[in-house]
Each structure stands twice: as structure tokens, then as C-alpha cells.
UniProtKB/TrEMBL annotation:
InterPro entries: Formyl_transf_N, Formyl_transf_N_sf, GART. Its EC number is 2.1.2.2. The record marks 168 as: Raises pKa of active site His. N(1)-(5-phospho-beta-D-ribosyl)glycinamide binds at residues 20-22. This is Phosphoribosylglycinamide formyltransferase. It catalyses: N(1)-(5-phospho-beta-D-ribosyl)glycinamide + (6R)-10-formyltetrahydrofolate = N(2)-formyl-N(1)-(5-phospho-beta-D-ribosyl)glycinamide + (6S)-5,6,7,8-tetrahydrofolate + H(+). Keywords: Purine biosynthesis, Transferase. (6R)-10-formyltetrahydrofolate binds at residues 71, 96-99, 113. Belongs to the GART family. It comes from the Bacteria. The keyword Transferase applies. CDD domains: FMT_core_GART.
Length: 212
């Protein structure tokens, strides 16, 4: 039997705010037939100049800029679009706004987020035990790579997780450690983390597809 017949159809809406390199990783994996059954149905950006919009259009994926006036209005429009485009799962691929608990509880285990730090099993808790046994803080919110540098830890990483109302605290789908190197700046560390994320996001979508 061919892959297409055994893999469940999964229509993704990607929410972005910027570069969209993780969206690109998904588009490339789909094009290379590494994610049979998976399709990016729609890309929505809250920023007009998000480069990810161009990436989507280049792949002939519907892409739109939805200005963020109020959270309530924005979410109402997104809910309509998700229905119109028959979306099964939402991927927050570098989406830099906090979404409401009401929106999140509408789609339990149907919203996936990428966070550039290590989140423990179950998602909650303030510490993470790395593979070498050291205990590091969980860096939540904005500038997580910078937080890791400032804390002086030797290892950080990235986690793909299901979204729950508490920020960056949902159960991980997959994650990977990334070592911090001498002389790292926020930019160099963020870039090294992104390289890992490009694999993780594809892995996470595959795992999710097998679960639903
Ligand atoms: C990624 O590193 C992602 O983990 C991070 O933004 C970057 C987006 O990159 N997300 C957050 O910090 C969310 N709190 P991209 O636009 O190139 O995919």
C-alpha cells in the first residue's frame, strides 16, 4: 500500500510573525514527500512584512496578512478562516503574540508551538534535567536563547509542544538539546537552535499525524 493511503490527511494552518524558516522546513519536507498526507492549507501573519508570507506564496500556498487590532477580533477572524480552509491543526511557527485561553481551549491538542528552550515532560515545572544530569531553569516567553545565555547554562535547546493556556507550558511532542558555545551571542545561539528546529518541526508534525 502506498504511503498516501496509510497516512491520515492533515491540513495545517501556520501562524507566523517573521522569517518563517520553520514554515519553509515544512514546505520543503512536503515537497520532498517526507510528510505524505500533510498539506499547508493556509498561512496567516500578524505582520505585513513577514518574509514567511513570501515563502508561502512561492509554494502557491494561500497566505494572508491579518492585522492585529484587538486579540478578540483577530481570533474571531482566524476561527472563521480555519473553518473555511478545513484546517485540522494549527502550527505556531514563530508566532509572537499570546493567544487567549478561549481560543486555545477550542482546539485541545490541535495547536502546536515551537519554543526555543527545553520544556520538561508534561510541560509544567521550573526546571529541566539535561542529558548530562544537570538541572537548568525553564526559559519561557520572549528571548529564551538570551535568557539561557544570561543564566550561564551550558546547554539549552528547543521544544515542539501542544499549546495550553499557560505560556510555553504544554506537553512536549519532541525536543532536542543544543549546546551553548564559547562566544555565543543571542543571534548565533538562535541560529543554531533554528537549524535543529527545522528537523524538529517536521518530526513533530509526523508524530501528531500518527496520533490523530
Ligand atoms: C523560532 O526559533 C521559534 O522557536 C521562535 O521564533 C523563531 C521563529 O523562526 N519562537 C518563539 O520564540 C515563540 N515564543 P522562523 O520565523 O524563522 O521560523
Amino acid at each position: 500500500m502506498e504511503d498516501q493511503h496509510i497516512n491520515k490527511r492533515l491540513r495545517i494552518a501556520a501562524l507566523i510573525s517573521g522569517s518563517g524558516s520553520n514554515l519553509q522546513a515544512l514546505l520543503d519536507a512536503i515537497e520532498a514527500r517526507h510528510l505524505p498526507g500533510v498539506e499547508i492549507a493556509l498561512v496567516i501573519s500578524n505582520k505585513a512584512n513577514a518574509f514567511g508570507l513570501q515563502r508561502a506564496l512561492k509554494h502557491k500556498v494561500p497566505a494572508l496578512y491579518l492585522p492585529w487590532r484587538t486579540r478578540e477580533e483577530w481570533e474571531r477572524r482566524v476561527i472563521d478562516l480555519l473553518q473555511l480552509f478545513q484546517v485540522d491543526v494549527i502550527v505556531l511557527a514563530g508566532f509572537m503574540r499570546i493567544i487567549s485561553a478561549d481560543f486555545i481551549t477550542r482546539y485541545p491538542e490541535r495547536i502546536i508551538n515551537l519554543h526555543p528552550a527545553l520544556i520538561p515532560d508534561g510541560g509544567k515545572g521550573d526546571t529541566y534535567t539535561t542529558s548530562d544530569g544537570s538541572l537548568i531553569p525553564v526559559f519561557r516567553g520572549m528571548h529564551a536563547p538570551l535568557q539561557a545565555l544570561e543564566a550561564g547554562v551550558r546547554v539549552t535547546g528547543s521544544t515542539v509542544h501542544y499549546v495550553v493556556p499557560e505560556v510555553d507550558a504544554g506537553p512536549p511532542i519532541c525536543r532536542r538539546e543544543v549546546p551553548i558555545e564559547a562566544g555565543d551571542t543571542e543571534d548565533t545561539l538562535q541560529e543554531r537552535i533554528k537549524k535543529v528546529e527545522h528537523q524538529l518541526i517536521v518530526e513533530a508534525v509526523k508524530i501528531h499525524q500518527q496520533r490523530v
